[in-house]
Each structure stands twice: as structure tokens, then as C-alpha cells.
Amino acid sequence: MRYLPHTGEEIDEMLRVVGAKDLDDLFSTIPKDCRRTRDLVLPGPLTEWELNDRMDALSAQMRVPPQVKTFLGAGSYPHHIPEAVRQLLLRSEFYTAYTPYQPEISQGTLQAIYEYQTLVTRLLGMEVANASMYDGATSLAEALLMAIRVTRRKKVAVSRLIHPHYRRVVETYLLASGHEILYLPALADGTTDLSATGDLSELAAVAVQSPNFYGCIENLAAAGETAHADPKTLFIVTFTEPLAYGLLTPPGEFGADIVCGEGQSLGLPQSFGGPGLGMFASRNKYVRSMPGRLVGQTVDKDGKRGFVLTLATREQHIRRERATSNICSNEGLCALASAMYMACLGRTGIRELARLNHDKAEYLKAGLKAAGAEIPFAAPTFNEFVAKLPPGFGEKHARLLEKNIVAGLPLETYFPELRDHALFCATETVSKEDMDALIKEIAS
Q: Under CATH, to which class is 83-342 assigned?
């Protein structure tokens, strides 16, 4: 990208227009203790080859697969991605396309989004899906705001077993705008205590995650019955691992009104935490309250099939006060990757892959139990689970890291009561030899 510097005269003119004395005035709203007061320590100029060497040295400090054997999940999952997805995604028609502000001349992009929506509704058992959102956390927050709009109630019930990062985003969205969040505690088996919902007539929605943060599969039938005991209360299901629904009954069949979550597992590399893909599906009767946008199919004046931006309830398209979301773009390329991935695997492939993930996690779970770990939660799991390790596991976790083994995610940071507990994950990317090596280290 070309570097276009501003001259001192131009900067002075801009400062006069905005009424600032100097550039520091532009940052006056930032507390002084949050500002950097010293210059950045940067190396001198480098040649192109020296810069490449410098970047290689920095990247070598990172511990990444396959050199490192990782048993981490917790919202971001390692999966093999077919090469066909990578290559098709690099086609310039898709790779350089931006959001279709003139939908009638963006037929290829619109069709791709339409296919994505179709595949999402089939995977989740829902009636309509939007053209994706930023990530799973914002999808859940937007789902709760949608429930508040639909019911005109200001209180929601949220399972404590929803991903902690998702809950933080929900708090950011809801609490500042005067809404109330009721957190539902956990039962001894690792699932949500639905009896704590209280007076349902006050609730806009009941939200649970399945599989939840512990990896446990929630009783969605019971959760749906609890939420719908009041006909106005919406039942929301979120997820971090959509691949689970290749094996599990989809939430739509349990009466979910909104299903939302993270789609990273479907064709997106982890990429050190992003970008992600916010999946969002709903019952058709709530379609006009959905955030984001929706692509539909129609015919032109000659009777030929075409695609249109059917609904676009964003601030860019309609009046601000009527917009259902302030998210002004979607993860279009990520959604396309997800659609390609699901189409490549097909219904049978997704089911087989889901079964493989489940079986590998069960093998690891049994091995850790035999090695002396305790499995504290009795609820069935998908591809991750919680294990309680002998006291002092923190030191062993650090030693294993030195051996290039990431032995799960310690949970005490998120749940103080779970000291010496860790969340382990096993997908198709880990081999039996990898799992046996971890089990042997834990047992030693």
C-alpha cells in the first residue's frame, strides 16, 4: 500500500478545523495512565532479506502444530480442511469481492451466500439463516437482543456453562443498555440447572450452549420445555462446535427459536484466534427481527433464476432507528469457506467426521481416567471434556509445554471452584500415538 504522509501545514489546518491545539489533544479522552509516554523501541532500517530473517526468527518462537501436540478446544478447534476449499476460496471472484451493495450485479456472491444459508438451516434444523455475523459471541449477544425486541421484555436467563468469553460479550451488549441477565448455575453432572429460571413471565429468552463449555451435551428437550412453559419466552441454543450436529439431533428439532454460534470448525483455520464466523438461524416467524441480512431466490422477467438481497435490516440499508443490528458487515469470505467445507463433506462425511471426533475424545477420556485422572461430570460429551488431575497439575502442565505438549486448558481462571481441572479436546487431527503419549505423561 502506498504511503501518503501529511505535511505539517496540512496537519495544522486539520487541527484548526477540529479545534485542537496539537495532535496530543486528539487523545485527551484517553486516561493518562493508559497512554504510552515513551517512544517505541524499534530496530533500525533492514534490507528486504534481513526483514525476512527477522520475521522467520519471530515466527519460530511460536509453538504451533504439527510440531506441538495440542489438546485444546474451548471455542477454537483444529480440523483438517480439504485442499479444494483452500483453492476455490482463492478464486478472485470470491477473494476480492466486497459486500454486495448492488446485489443485482453480484449474482455469484449472492448465490454463494444463499447456498451457505441453506446448508446452515439443514445442519441446525432451522427454517431460516442469515448471511453470517462476526463470530459466535456477537451472534449470541444479537440473539438475546432479538429476543428482547420480539418479547419487549428486558431480562434474559443465560447458562453459566456458556463460553465465558461469550458471556462477557453478552454483558457488554446488554448491561450497558439497562437489561438484566440471570445466570443459571451448573448441576453436578456438568449441565445447566434449568430450575433456576424463576418467573418465566419476566424472561425474554432462556439461552443454553450445547455442547457446553465443559463439553457436556445439554438436555435440549428439557431446556425447550422449560423456556416454552411461557409462550412468549424464546428458547436460544448457542454452540462453539457446529460439527457436533453432524452426530447430535439439531437444536431445531427440540423447538429452539434461535440457534447461533461459532462456525470456525467448518473450513476455517484457527489462525491464532480469528477471523471467525457467526452462524445465526431462526424460526421463519421471527425473520423480520433477525439482525444482518438475508439472501433469497427469485426469477427475473424472463423466468430465469436469480438471487436478491431479500432483507437487509442494517443501518447501511434502512433508517438507524429501525435497524435490528449495528453490525455493519458480515464474514462473507468465511461463510463461503464454511459452505464449501460442508458441501465437500456432504451429509455422510460430516456425520462420519463427527463420529470420529467423538470416538477419539472418548478414547482420551478413558485413557486419562486409567492414568489417575477423575472425570467429574457424568453427562455425555462430544469432542472435549473436563478432567480433574492430581494436585500440582499446574507444574506438570508447564513441564509438558516444554516437551511441546499442550495438556488441555486449566479451568481455574474461568471457574475458580475447578482448581486442578482442565478441559481436554481431541479432534481428527490428533493421532492415537499423540493421545497415548499424553496419557503416559499424565500417569508418570
A: alpha beta
